[in-house]
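Exercise 3.2. Students should predict the tertiary structure of the chain below and write it as structure tokens, then compare their answer with the key that follows.

Predict this chain's 3D structure.
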Amino acid sequence: MYANIIAGKQFFTHETKKVFRFVAASRFPARGFLLVFGIRPHYLVWHMRHATILVAMVLLLSGCETEPEKKPANESFRVLFETTRGNFIFRVHPEWAPNGAERFRTLVENDFHDGTRTFRLIRIPRKFAAQLGISGDPETGSKWRANMIQGDPVKTSIPREAISFAMAEKNSRTTQVFINYGDNSDLDDQYPTPFGLVEEGMDVADRFYSGDGDRPAQDTIHLEGNAYLDEYFPKRDRIRRASILVEES
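Answer key:
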């Protein structure tokens, strides 16, 4: 019987509906109202008792639901970048740079990198880095540039395949990141500590179009977005989509 009650097959019986009408119109004297609708007192008690049981069971079952397990803040995660040159995957290590890793995760979760360009590549006089992370939408970019994050202590060097934020001065990191083409450990004191490494597809980053070097003017990208790059630097590779990969436990 209780299974049927939960399924709604017996709960709304003829007598139960009378009880609901009674409760809804409780401003009338109870005895006179019962007489008018012909509800016998023991039926009223029976139906109200079972209605109470139903409510209690629903509350009990709803309390059994559990929230998804949250990963520890310092647990590494993987990020897939799909580009016009191919795909590559970062392994982000929050223990290296907690603030940088959290900002990078937030950017990816907000689709910031989707549609952006690789706007700066330096391979001369040495293979240095590929830089990306300026929004193709000027309005979006201005909001993020006003939201700088605090620096992280330097805990690791800058080897090939490392990814790190760019910065103009201390505590000025916003959205721009660079992928290191070579061992840049000699710059450990000048650049923020890396927050991850290219785990798969470094050969894709190596093939980013670099014929324009670092010619695109960053100030103009901030003002005009992708329209400027599409008109004057159409060969620049695009980030089609960036997403956090769900890893099986």
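Discussion points: Residues 41-62 form the longest helix (22 residues). The mean pLDDT is 79.
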